[in-house]
Amino acid sequence: MTRQAAVSQDDVRRHNLGRLLRLLHVRGATSRARLTALTGLNRSTVGALTTELVEAGLVRESTPPGRGRAGRPSIVVEPESERTFTLAIDLGVEHVIAARIGLGGVVYDRREIRHPQSENDVDKTVGSVHALLQSMLASAPKNSTCVGVGVGIAGVVGVDDNVVRFAPNLRWVDVPLGSMLSERLDGRLPVVVGNDGDVGALAEHVRGAAEGMSDVIYLSGEVGVGGGIIIGGQPLLGAGGYAGEIGHMSVNPINGRLCRCGRRGCWETEIGEEAVLLAAGTSGGTDLADVLAAHAAGDPNVIDGMKHVGQWLGVGVANLVNVFNPEMIVFGGATREIFAATEASTRRALRSALTAPRDQVRLETAALGADSTVIGAGELAFAPLLENPMTALGGGRARLNA
Ligand SMILES: [Zn+2]
Q1: What angle do CA 143, 76, 11 make, to 5 degrees?
Q2: What is the pLDDT of residues 115-145, one digit of tens each?
Q3: Ligand 1 mean position, distance from CA 231 (Å)
Q4: What is the C-alpha separation between 247 and 361, in angstroms, rounded?
Q5: How far is the centre of ligand 1, averaged over its atoms, from the C-alpha of 238 (Å)?
Q6: Distance 247 CA to ligand 1 centre (A)
Q7: In angstroms, what is the span from residue 221 Cα to ligand 1's centroid?
Q8: Does the structure show a pLDDT above 80 at 394?
Q9: Average pLDDT, stretch 245-264?
Q10: Which pTM was predicted?
């Protein structure tokens, strides 16, 4: 055998290990027979690969009672969810959600901290995120392995350097969040940072409302509005990873309000949390939940105001439909509730979109609820393991005696 042939066989094996582990991560327990059918590999290859994954502690096999069609029991393979995990953070403007997420997407330990917008000092925030991570590591099962930390943040993030370039609602500019967290963890764990909209889109695409779809736009929202775009099954990142800032689409530049990004009339100034409060005619002390409660209770002023917000929501959605021809638009974060309260006027405004793409789009709320971002951050941290299971585990630094 030539040296080149040996290398390429090894590459194929590595690739197939990753494929199998990804299938199990997404689908959960699956029989070997089903894995054989799904991958198109032959039975003995699937057997050898799953044995390798079992030895690495990533999956386990069991033989359920009863007999398979061929007269032999069909061995079932499932992820070792409690043994292999990521730590995931949704770093919002008014909240931090943290979770320990096992292989297979099982959420074991979810924590949430609310804080006022005024407390977004960089060092203080990084300190409290680090404390959360340490506490979750300390409470993970003995002999389990953390393969990485993922963070989703409401800001523009460099795709290669984990630097938060600009997070207008946090008032952060050029914050090297990935390396700051990594240093505090003494370099023991890889840290990856992504935009909250991008990771929310990832989560809804892998295990949420848009599962199995090819072209999807996800809207995230808290104080601002962000988004993530998946085209042809792949995330649309742009040249620097900054694509998908749909909250800053210019929709009302002449008469609109000033946006935190410095411009006037961005989409988030018409459909974001502040826009909802203004449209509902509420002042200090009220929040989105109060407005939604008043809306549900039939307050006529609030109902009128929300119709206005729904019109703007529909205008932006129509633009997205015309440009991207998505199969689905998923409303996540605060846009879930805003869409639910304004659905009729949003759909009316969507009529301005071109007929052909409009007829194909479905509007849905996020199936993972408030957890799209944190679950997507976990998926981001699992990516290297799913790409190349043995290398990701062999790095040494990823293995913690938690
Ligand atoms: Zn803006």
Answers
A1: 75
A2: 887 778 999 999 999 999 999 999 999 989 9
A3: 24
A4: 20
A5: 18
A6: 7
A7: 13
A8: no
A9: 94
A10: 0.92
Tokens of 130: 């680090």
> Distance, CA 226 to ligand 1 centroid (Å)?
10
Nearest to 79 by CA among 171, 125, 147: 147
Going across the sheet that includes 172-175, the strands are 156-157, 164-167, 172-175
Ligand 1 centroid to Cα of residue 264, in Å, is 7
Read off the pLDDT of residues 351-362 as tens digits, 9 standing for 90 and up. Answer: 999 999 999 999
Report how far residue 365's alpha carbon sits from residue 218's, in angstroms, rounded to the nearest whole number. 9
Position 398 scores a pLDDT of 44
| CA atoms of 288 and 55, how far apart (whole Å) | 50
What's the CA-to-centroid distance between 233 and ligand 1, angstroms? 28
Angle at 401 between CA 399 and CA 402, to 5 degrees: 105
Where do runs of H (alpha helix) occur along 267-388?
268-271, 273-279, 288-296, 300-324, 334-350, 355-360, 372-387
First and final C-alpha spacing in the chain: 43
**Ligand 1 mean position to 342 CA, how many Å?**
22
Residue 318 CA to ligand 1 centre (angstroms): 19
Residue pair 82/104 in contact (Cβ under 8 Å)? The answer is no
- Residue 401: predicted pLDDT: 44
Count Cα neighbours of 358 within 13 Å in the Cβ-side half-sphere.
16
- Average pLDDT of the chain is 92
Instruction: Please give the pLDDT value at position 71.
Output: 65
What is the 3-class SS of 114-142, one letter each residue? ECCHHHCCHHHHHHHHHHHHHHHHHCCCC
